[in-house]
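Incident log, structure service

09:12 report received: a user says their structure output differs between two submissions of the same chain.
09:20 pulled the input from the user's history:
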Amino acid sequence: MSRSLTILGATGSVGSSTLDLVRRQSEEWRVLALTANCQARELAALAREFDAELAVVADESCLPELREALAGSGIEASGGEAALVEAAQRGADLTVAAIVGCAGLAPTMAAIEQGGTIALANKEALVSAGAVMTAAVARHGATLLPVDSEHNAIFQCLAGNRLADVRWITLTASGGPLRCWSYEQLRAATPAQAVAHPNWSMGAKISVDSATMMNKGLELIEAFHLFPVGAEALRIVVHPQSVIHSMVEFRDGSTLAQLGPSDMRVPIASALAWPRRMDTPCTPLDLPAIGELTFLAPDEERFPATRLAREAVLEGGAAPAVLNAANEVAVAAFLAGHIAFTQIADIVAQILSADRPRPPASLDDVLAVDAEARARASAMLEPA
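09:34 re-ran on a clean worker, output below:
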């Protein structure tokens, strides 16, 4: 029997990769809803191809174009934040949560509250709202399947094992395109240099996060909530080849590692087929051609983002949401040419050092913390 599927963020990289896999096994899926920010024509084409019941644009100004593109198809078109939540509430067997940023928080929570299975690719859900989200998962009996390559690797390594037997969880990091640069070189790095990732094809923001190592810091916070072994059992290792996506060491000394090509369709396929496996078109690993796998300790002098993230997760409360919001503002300023690469972590550190509100107890609290941190970071960037 076919399973029902909703993709929140269907036109982004994760959404596109998901639909590429669904396209290859279309008889196994029934698409309920597809959403995008404002790519109305592209979204309409996908909704027609997959015979979706509903297509939603987050930006309501794009709704007339979406309706025009879907005219005569019988596919419902809608727009705005409330429509995103409605799409998530359609009760799909599997919801892929791939909306970037805090715009994805409310739809992801709505999917969790349906008690279904959520393939989670939205970092903010666990970085900014980890305690709130995981409490909702437990309350509603939902299942979270991690889609990030690192967390999916950990998920696979833990299959059939007990968290009580875990000694270490190791997140691997490529180190990004600037890994070997000196501090002086980093200070002069351009946006074009920072987004030129050697292994992965990603958007500009996440590519900059990889270059600063903040992406790995955010993933450490996610892992803290997904795999409750304690922050002291989480560590990061730089692995430039990006062949091993993460590792788990158990108390008997055994270490399990998940290896695979640098292709997001591998972890997405793991979530789509779980608890089974499915075929993918990904190129198999050629270990003799790779030749060597190397591992290095992170340099938190040149790349302090992982230290800031660790401090935030140890503090808990509002700190991770503040870290995430300040980083997003700083990265946007760097990409716009307003600050230097090395100032990204400096701004995050300064915002983290300020007084913080009480720990968020609800999604509204998380969004309020996020908005306040963004305002503070933006104020720092204004000319004196």
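09:41 both user submissions now match this output. Likely a transient worker issue. Closing.
09:42 reviewer note: The mean pLDDT is 95. The CA atoms of residues 51 and 194 lie 39 Å apart.
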